[in-house]
Specification:
Elements (H helix, E strand, L loop, with lengths): L2 H10 L18 H15 L2 H7 L1 E4 L6 H9 L5 E3 L4 H14 L7 E4 L12 H6 L3 H16 L5 E2 L23 H16 L10 E7 L18 H8 L1 H8 L4 E4 L3 E2 L2 E2 L4 H11 L5 E3 L8 H4 L5 H11 L4 E2 L3 H11 L5 H17 L28 H10 L2 E5 L11 E5 L6 H5 L14 H9 L4 E5 L8 H7 L13 H13 L3 E7 L20 H10 L4 E6 L8 H5 L2 E4 L7 H9 L66 E3 L3 E2 L3 E2 L5 E9 L5 E11 L10 E10 L4 E8 L6 E2 L5 E2 L3 E8 L5 E8 L1
Parallel strand pairs: 1-2, 1-10, 2-3, 3-4, 4-5, 5-6, 6-9, 12-13, 12-14, 14-15, 15-16, 19-27
Antiparallel strand pairs: 7-8, 11-16, 17-20, 18-20, 20-23, 21-22, 21-26, 24-25, 26-27
Helix pairs in contact: 2-15, 3-14, 4-5, 7-8, 7-16, 8-10, 13-14, 16-23, 18-23, 20-21
Bound molecules: 1-deoxynojirimycin.
Length: 767
């Protein structure tokens, strides 16, 4: 936990009354002194086994049946659990701790509340596409309230790994490729989860993950190694974690990958030098699931005993669902290989987190009393549907709209094609916490709701998301998630074509099933999977206007289908109210304003493809092709299919040239860069004005442009607005070869536009 929030937290806890009689704090103590005194006193009473028990975070799953868990908790051998999601489930666990264990140390309960708890908001990548910090904050606050009302104290979120390789299935779970945007969201999410303090009844403690660099796994293959230069780490990949910690996150989840050869869970540099010493983090570190034991497969520990030793010494406080700490720490301490101080440091952080969550003051703070449990945990009344719909509409990105095909008119006959249009489960996306598929609104339902009897809807399934045995086995591994229509593919396509022929317009809902964009779901292709591309071709051949509604958790390399479609709307996995939100946009009841948080490549061979790349000594110059430039010669057009920050609207916006307040910026001074944005179309709309900077000649090559600010503006037809960004020396800083964060004198390019590619430009000098 870092400075700012710590102050708020401690003020909030000043009146915390403690459970144990030993805990009464002297009135003259500051809240921090009171916390430390309480923990010191408690730790003096703890046996080694009780201390090690506090370092164990166990999954509520079939592997350990409840009676065994209760027994372990009562014996002081488990200090926290995750994956139980109702007050009724958590209450007996808490009772076992506070009524039966010797020292009555409360448990805490954690869960992956990533993009919603009972109400599911769009997947994180979708949330990022809104570029709307209020909407994102609202999703986080509601998630916290709903989860806290179910007796949960901590969330394993936000996930702020920068991801620049869409093959990585966990791109869906993060906020995209850009350091600045993800850092802003990281801070917003932590504030939303924790509110004024994680001790509040409606707050969750946030655990920022996955520390660190998990999004840079080689080849986008999950769990793979990461090798990265220090300047790239500091400049591009580390800031989002830091932003979450500076916002006060109480926890950090350690990544599964290795970093330059040393697995994060055994990485002393990462946890001691960077996290604790350099950044001053004062909260709890948590291993990822089973990660300590995995040190053996990583090849840095010969057995579990050595793995436990490496992890505790490197600074992993809590061991997530891993036997290594429980089994081996007692002996490691006795043999002197692990010191009591090392154990105590970890225990202190765990107890500190419990204090910060308000659990010593009231272990039932979030669980409450049984008499007040919701009569029906799954009741629709507990959902926040209106908010979910509004947030979801903001995340939709219009990628193409030839001849104003959209918005659709609420009349005539509309053919809806594609199994995803009827899939309640896929609407929720991966990591959908306690969300229930039967409560989600499919796209077909959303269109039905919007139309009433004004137009006729037809439906055909058209294609499966995959017909490949190995893919289906993979996707249905844990639970049956993908239902396959057993008919021959051509028969399904023919049926869809017949359906389309009877309609005035065709809406094809195509893309991925939710399990395709998930943990461990790395892809070696970015195509729309299965026979869906053949389906799109066949639908195009009907000559009917064709709207593609994409559902996917990563950028896709759209090929012919982009040419074939008249309009394309990217909807990610839009959550509980997704169907209504998408219908709002398709019919123009809401004007889309989402912007891509990740570049869409033309082909998988172009990866990695991200906007903030270096220039090289031989950059490709559009219009001046030639040999010996940095390009893929087989690609007729270089660069991305859709750039970062891209997204259309049902109206048009003009951006003026940039006006600078000066062409010089003094150290400690300010410089403003302004543009006038005008809505030149016929309907009201919102867009995101984006500012990028480039240091023209620096001591270390800098990205061709890097986002440093954005503002969302809402304009009526004909309305214009001056949008001003204020720049200071701080915005111009880079990490030099000595890893010092400095702004170097010289010329800077400032670029402003409505996406990262189409920008106006001006220049100034930093003195
Ligand atoms: C493994 C995932 O990597 C992590 O993100 C998640 O929080 C844990 N499992 C717990 O579910």
């Amino acid at each position: 936990m870092n400075k700012l929030c710590l102050v708020g937290l401690l003020v909030g806890l000043a009146s915390q009354t403690t459970l144990a009689a030993t805990a009464t704090s002297a009135p003259q103590q500051t809240p921090l002194q009171a916390k430390n005194a309480f923990i010191d006193k408690l730790m003096k009473q703890m046996t080694l086994d009780e201390k090690i028990g506090q370092l164990r975070l166990i999954s509520i799953s079939r592997e350990m049946p409840q009676p065994k868990i209760l027994e372990e908790i009562a014996a002081g051998r488990i200090g926290s659990t995750f994956n139980s999601i109702t007050r009724a489930e958590n209450r007996p666990l808490q009772e076992a701790a506070v009524a039966k264990s010797r020292l009555k140390i409360p448990m805490f309960f954690a869960y992956d509340v990533v993009h919603g708890h009972r109400t599911i908001f769009p997947i994180s990548l979708g949330l990022a596409a809104s570029w709307d910090m209020d909407a994102i904050a609202l999703s986080g606050r509601i998630s916290a309230k709903e989860a806290a009302a179910d007796g949960i104290d901590m969330t394993f979120a936000p996930m702020v790994d920068i991801s620049r390789d869409p093959r990585w299935g966990r791109s869906s779970e993060g906020f995209g490729e850009d350091t600045y945007l993800v850092s802003r969201i990281s801070e917003v999410m932590v504030h939303a989860f924790q509110a004024q303090s994680p001790a509040e009844k409606t707050s969750l403690m946030a655990a920022v993950k996955h520390f660190a660099l998990y999004g840079a796994v080689e080849g986008g293959r999950d769990y793979n190694s990461v090798d990265m230069s220090p300047t790239r780490m500091y400049q591009d990949y580390l800031p989002p974690y830091r932003a979450g910690l500076d916002a006060g996150a109480g926890g950090v989840m350690v990544a599964l990958n290795s970093i330059n050869g040393v697995p994060a869970s055994a990485n002393t540099w990462l946890m001691h030098d960077l996290l604790r010493k350099e950044w001053g983090f004062k909260g709890v570190t948590i291993s990822d699931h089973g990660a300590i034991g995995e040190l053996i497969k990583h090849g840095v520990a010969k057995d579990e005993r050595e793995a436990a030793k490496l992890a505790i010494k490197a600074g992993v406080d809590l061991s997530m669902n891993d036997e290594a700490y429980g089994e081996h720490l007692p002996e490691l301490v006795k043999s002197g290989e692990v010191s009591m101080k090392e154990i105590d440091n970890a225990v202190r952080e765990v107890l500190g987190a419990k204090w910060d969550m308000g659990l010593f003051a009231d272990p039932y703070r979030r669980i409450g009393v049984a008499a007040e449990d919701p009569a029906d945990t799954y009741s629709d009344d507990r959902l926040h549907r209106a908010e979910a719909r509004d947030v979801a509409r903001k995340t939709l990105v219009l990628l193409k709209n030839q001849n104003d095909t959209l918005p659709l008119k609420k009349q005539g006959t509309i053919a809806v094609i594609g199994g995803l249009a009827q899939s309640k489960l896929d609407m929720l996306g991966s990591w959908s916490a306690a969300g229930r598929p039967n409560q989600s609104v499919t796209l077909y339902e959303g269109l039905t709701n919007a139309l009433g009897d004004q137009a006729k809807l037809l439906y055909a399934r058209g294609a499966n998301v995959s017909d490949k045995e190995n893919v289906l086995t993979y996707l249905n591994f844990i639970e049956k998630e993908v239902e396959v229509d057993p008919r021959p593919a051509q028969e399904m396509i023919d049926e869809a074509v017949k359906t389309a022929e009877q309609a005035d317009v065709v809406v094809a809902v195509v893309g991925e099933s939710r399990g395709m964009s998930h943990e461990s779901a790395s892809r070696s292709s970015l195509d729309i999977p299965g026979r869906q591309r053949d389906l799109i071709k066949a639908l195009k051949a009907t000559g009917k206007p064709l709207v593609l509604v994409l559902m996917n958790g990563r950028p896709l390399a759209l090929g012919d289908e982009l040419q074939e479609a008249d309009a394309v709307l990217e909807t990610w996995f839009p959550g509980t109210e997704g169907g209504n939100a998408v219908a709002d946009v398709l019919f123009g009841d809401y004007n889309p304003s989402g912007k891509l948080p990740m570049t869409f490549p033309r082909s998988i061979g172009q990866l990695p493809q991200y906007y903030a790349h270096m220039n090289t000594g031989r950059p490709y110059t559009p219009g001046k092709p030639g040999n010996y430039t940095s390009q893929y010669f087989e690609e007729p057009v270089q660069g991305p299919l859709f750039p970062f920050g891209y997204g259309l609207s049902y109206t048009h916006f003009d951006v003026s040239d940039i006006k600078l307040s000066s062409d010089k910026l003094e150290r400690k001074g300010k410089l403003s860069a302004s543009v006038t944005v005008k809505n030149t179309g016929k309907v009201a709309g919102a867009t995101v004005v984006q500012l990028y900077l480039h240091d023209v000649a620096a001591s270390v090559s800098q990205p061709v442009k890097a986002l440093k600010g954005f503002q969302k503006v809402d304009l009526q037809p004909g309305q214009e607005q001056v949008v001003t960004f204020t720049l200071t020396e701080n915005d111009l800083k880079l990490y030099n070869q000595a890893l010092k964060h400095v702004a170097e004198a010289g010329e800077f390019q400032v670029m402003i536009g409505l996406d990262s590619a189409d920008v106006k430009e001006a220049r100034f000098n930093l003195l």
